[in-house]
Write a structure and sequence with these properties.
The chain is mostly beta strands. It has a single domain, classed as Cyclophilin (Beta Barrel). Helices cover about 5% and strands about 40% of the residues. It has an eight-stranded antiparallel beta barrel with strand order 1-2-7-5-6-4-3-8. A hairpin with a 4-residue loop joins strand 5 and strand 6. The longest helix is centred in the first third of the chain and has 9 residues.
């Protein structure tokens, strides 16, 4: 079950990596609003389990947003235990305790399916 529901009211963001740029929409949760308030951000992201890119963000997000251990392809998340922003570019059916969903990539999430560390820039476009 997804706790933080995506809506057309969420903030639209752009995520850039190298020469690629994709858009995403944040949900209307407090955690997503906290994340949006940090933008623009540059985040060094490592590959994790060949399913996601993960990177530490400057500060923690709201604890009042309920988590969801499930995720889908293109979901953006926040992993509370390590203060980590997550972009899911593959779905393997596993659950992730402590995960908070922040939003979803519109399309093009496959650009993150590259080995190793990447640097991404996240900015608001609304």
């Amino acid at each position: 079950m997804r706790i933080a529901i995506l809506s057309g009211e969420g903030k639209q963001i752009r995520i850039r990596m190298d020469d690629h740029a994709i858009t995403a929409r944040l949900n209307d949760s407090e955690a997503a609003r906290d994340f949006a308030a940090m933008l623009p951000l540059t985040i060094q992201m490592d590959d994790h389990l060949r399913r996601e890119k993960t990177g530490i963000i400057p500060r923690s997000l709201s604890e009042r947003t309920l988590g969801s251990p499930t995720y889908g392809l293109g979901d953006l998340g926040y992993w509370r235990p390590r203060n980590t922003f997550v972009i899911f570019y593959r779905q393997d059916g596993l659950t992730i305790p402590g995960l908070v969903l922040l939003g979803k990539v519109d399309s093009g999430v496959e650009i993150f399916d590259v080995p190793g560390t990447v640097q991404v820039a996240v900015e608001s476009i609304d």
